[in-house]
Amino acid sequence: MALLELTNIAKHFGAIHALDGVSLSLEPGEVVGLMGDNGAGKSTLVKIIAGNFRPTHGTLKMEGKNLVMHRPIEARQHGIEIVYQDLALCDNLSAAANVFLGRELRRGIGPFQILDYPAMFRRAGELFGEIKSETRPRDLVKQMSGGQRQAVAIARTMLSEAKIVLMDEPTAAISVRQVAEVLNLIKHLRDQGIAVVLISHRMPDVFTVADRIIVMRRGHKVADKKVAMSSPEEVTGLITGAIETA
């Protein structure tokens, strides 16, 4: 049984058809690279999975059960997390404080409660250990590299025991060494049975970590195939339209 299954998904904004008849499935522990030019429909598709948009037509199923979401918080309740390109981190807070932002641990009785910093530092440290990151819970985010910031954002998704992590251009605008860190983070998520959808324009990154590639063009899915059965040249042709479908 597929972890997530989308069938004939369409999304219309007035006369604009952002998505038309898109079907796909996602298995546990699978990394899927989602590629396409600007305006191809990638972000709209991911926002439907993340609960930001409701599809105009089509159905979603999670572990065989119909999935209808009205808000992003409902997607999170089903184990779907999204890491946006800007990461949405607070630079003036520690790594641990960012991991627990909005979900802080407290101790005490009734109204007499205080934040349980030792417990948050300890749990954040465990999460960083699970994804093999050298990020330290007490370090301030503003002092971190791009790779460490990604680790904080990913640890935050793991706090809620995510089943699916959607990643929007995680390797954009960071150094080569930091790119390697982020790709390793994605591999560790996969190794823990978490499915990852990776939106990226960077062909080498997708071919390094993805098991499967889905190519979008003008709101349609034009390819869905295993990485081993494709090539960067084919994907480029599919994105530009030089190759119709694959």
Automatic annotation (TrEMBL):
SMART domains (alphabetical): AAA
Residues annotated as domain ABC transporter: 4-243
GO molecular function: ATP binding; ATP hydrolysis activity
The entry's keywords: ATP-binding, Nucleotide-binding, Sugar transport, Transport
InterPro entries referenced in this protein's UniProt entry, alphabetically: AAA+_ATPase (IPR003593), ABC_carbohydrate_import_ATPase (IPR050107), ABC_transporter-like_ATP-bd (IPR003439), ABC_transporter-like_CS (IPR017871), P-loop_NTPase (IPR027417)
Organism domain of life: Bacteria
Matching Pfam families: ABC_tran
UniProt xrefs under Gene3D superfamilies: P-loop containing nucleotide triphosphate hydrolases
PANTHER family: CARBOHYDRATE TRANSPORT ATP-BINDING PROTEIN MG119-RELATED (PTHR43790), SUGAR ABC TRANSPORTER ATP-BINDING PROTEIN (PTHR43790:SF8)
Family that this chain belongs to: Belongs to the ABC transporter superfamily.
Protein name: Simple sugar transport system ATP-binding protein
Organism: Bauldia litoralis
